[in-house]
Protein 1
Amino acid sequence: MGRTRGDPKIARRIFLGGAAAAVVGAPHVVSRVSVLAALWARLILVAAATCTLMVVPVVHAQPAGKVARIGWFSPYAASDPEFQRGRDIFRMALAELGYVEGQDITIEYRWAGGKAERLPRLAAELVKVKVDVIVAQGGLPSALAAQQATKTIPIVIGGAVDPVGAGLVASLARPGGNITGSTLIPDALLGKQVELLMHVVPKGSRVAVLWNPDNPGNARQLRVAGAVPGLLLDPVGARDAAEIEKAFVTMTERRAAAVMVLLDPTFLTERQRIADLALRNGLPSAYGFRTHADAGGLMAYAASRVELPQMTAFYVARILKGARPADLPVAQPTKFELVINMKTARALGLTIPQTLLLRADEVIQ
């Protein structure tokens, strides 16, 4: 499958750092000092944006010579290469920051295999083995499971939607408690998805919105989506593979012209099924994770899949050096990418405007 780059100015926005860059084939290596400085500068900007003075005290750095134990759990399957990639970027970024697995740290991995109901048990297991910090991958469901499992062990969340509204942190600038990390704010992502679909369906068209009623973050996304003008959005819920199949039947019955897929671990696990169903039913599709476009979805506008695990590694390193989660602002990613799958566009009989193709960071041929 061929891939081409769009506007080189946009392509350069994707930050590829150090050993993590090797995972995606980037030609350069950045020192651990530059990675740390760049990420720390982002957190300072978060605090400055809210007019707060950020002081991060060191309270109990790991004793010299001690091997720290990190608990890392994910809603996905260990065999999924996409999430193996994210794990590897995390490990390599940690190594750049001075924490090499097997030398300075050990990592306890837990995978839910696409079964969100397993997450609370996995989080409890990590608490039981007395890890020094927990990494909750996969958005809000993992973050909530970790929060329920412990109020004392530091937790680093990865890409959780609306952590303030979910009760994970007091505010982005001053989280309080034992949780910090990165967040995905859906407003810009959903607005961009609507904008993308308006290039391929008439204004005012009915667009189905696939959402998971069991994911609290999806409720926020639905509210945001409903406020975006331009298209008539029609929510269709699904919690698992069987319900996803039924959801597409409902979409066709309601004469949807396209489908938007919200950010959800189940939908990522079922990304191939969703892409196949959208194509089979003749529905142009837009997503907030680029992995969906790799699987055959039409278009995705998403945070860089390199930047998020790098951010997670940065937080873990800061905590192991003695920083308190309560004092580390929750950060938003700054690197986003637009991916268009032209193979899918041709199969749907769509003409993608040249102006949109030129804006794309990647075009899958």
Note: The radius of gyration is 20 Å.
Protein 2
Amino acid sequence: MKAILHAGMQKTGSSSIQESLARADLSHSLYTPWRGANHGALVAILFEEGRETLHGALRRYETDPEGLADLRQRTRAKLNRAFKQTQADQVILSAERLFNLAPEFKTRMRDYFAQYCDGVQVICYIRPPASFIQSAFQQMLKSGKLGVPDAQTLAGRWPAYRRHVQGMDRVFGKENVQLVKFDRKTLAQGDVVLDFAHRIGENLTPEDLVRVNETLSLEAASLIFLRGQQGRGRGGSKSVEARRAEKQVIDSLSRVGTGKFALSRALLDPVLEANQADLAWIEERLGDSLAEPSTASGESIETEADFRRIAARARGELEEEIARLEASGPSEPALSILRDISEQAALAGEV
């Protein structure tokens, strides 16, 4: 049996890969059984001893070392049984966490799979830096953790290609780490899920695909910015109802607008320039350029004023979405949040 480790990277359709494979009827592969399609928490439990506070799924064990030890033992035993009993030719584990995992924990993973597998293949999709930073910025907007983009914030989103890829090369062997450029023009059928399935010998169809964390439009991102300015979505643990409402808000806002989200080159270029050596290294390792076309012909975000101007323009579409949600049945408190955002968009248009 062979181990296939899907290592992200972040913002390359990993959630869609995970959900699609977890639900698909795979012909000769075992998708590692776990309580969710994303194996990030599983990786933390099995291989990251001493760093449990870094994964939200384990934070409740911070003051319960015996409970954590028991969880690890039970999880490992369950996985051991699954690997011993399977008739599959290969086992798949998928977690963006693998990309950033410290070398000592990657080594633990390699040694664990060596007990059951004849070999390990790592597949990692590499996203060009500008689009990666912009996508990561969107994700932070959704979570309410980020406001106006600035040089320091964007510099902190740089993916540190060499450090992470070189770590995988050293642990698993460069010949066992397959890097794939995340570019719909070159992916199989223009889709990362179908591309991954093709690489591991599974025949998935477009009907098998599950879409998760799709990109935001320029207008949707601007409205979500206003939500963040209200303090929505920030801090602390939330009730199930609050999390459900936030998801409904994001889903509703995601249906607004068609413009492509882009940060201005005035923000991005200094970050790219400061990391030229890292970019040159990953391009040589990948064997392909990560240059991206300029977005100069379209709108882009540089300041808070840009967010507010675009949000004001999108208010009409937001009101249509609010009306649709009202007609579909009880949706409080999501509707209350959306109405507040609409009011903020109206005020932004008056400035």
Note: The first helix runs from residue 14 to 23.
